[in-house]
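User: I'm new to structure prediction. If I give you an amino acid sequence, what do you actually give back? Let's try with this one:
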Amino acid sequence: MSATHQSSVFPRRLLSAVCIAAISVTLAGCASKGQMTTGSIPSLNKPLETMNATELHSAAESIGRVYDRNPKDAAVGMKYASVLTMGGRAEQALAVMQQVAIHNPTDRTVLAAYGKALAGAGQLEKALDAIQRAQTPDRPDWQLLSAEGAIYDQMGDPASARQRYRKALDLQPNEPSILSNLGMSYVLQGDLRTAETYLASAVRQPGADSRVRQNLALVVGLQGRFQEAEQIASSELSTEQAKANVSYLRAMLSQQNAWNKLKDSDRKNTN
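Assistant: Good question. You get back a string of structure tokens that encode the predicted 3D arrangement of the chain. For your 271 residues, that looks like this:
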């Protein structure tokens, strides 16, 4: 594995389903509502999405030791699973979340994170079931609706996905993670112009994080505006990381002729 691949946000998005990134954006906020015990989780010196492979491995080792001492702790387990997922260890992350869910069977946040882990492992039907069991019709959670939408997107049902996103926006207007998921839904359908509209709106909202901005950079880059993509990416990443991401994206599109395919799809959507 090259250094570029290790440190890159774009390749992680591009070489796996784009929806998994969308689920990650949604459920990261959901997991933050978990039952936290002050000082129980080792502090990290930077966001997970900006870590390279070495840093993710170190973070996993550190949090894993805490998890081993108390696998029933929901907050520790969810954090450990998130680090494992970012490091490409989806099966291990799922095994961790299965244990956490067994010990916390009624915790909505745990069930949501379990759904994320199932989706990351490609078990989409089970993921959808976990998310829906976490939801309560009388007090619907916008984060769960958005996560459900992301799973429908990955299942190839954009109509159901966007219905969930819009319901989520009714509950939480202008929420950047929902707008980002909605934008990525249009990416999956090849409608890059609409995707950019939603992602640009997401970035302008208070609370938009690095992952939302990196999704916008990705969509801008997919339209061939590489310098602009690099500028967006470098607002969070180091200059070297941003350049590496855009170089990887440029090379991938060139090698696979993906850019021409995306242009054709985008043209059809605008005619």
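You can read the tokens as a compact description of the fold. Here is one thing that stands out. The chain has a mean pLDDT of 79.
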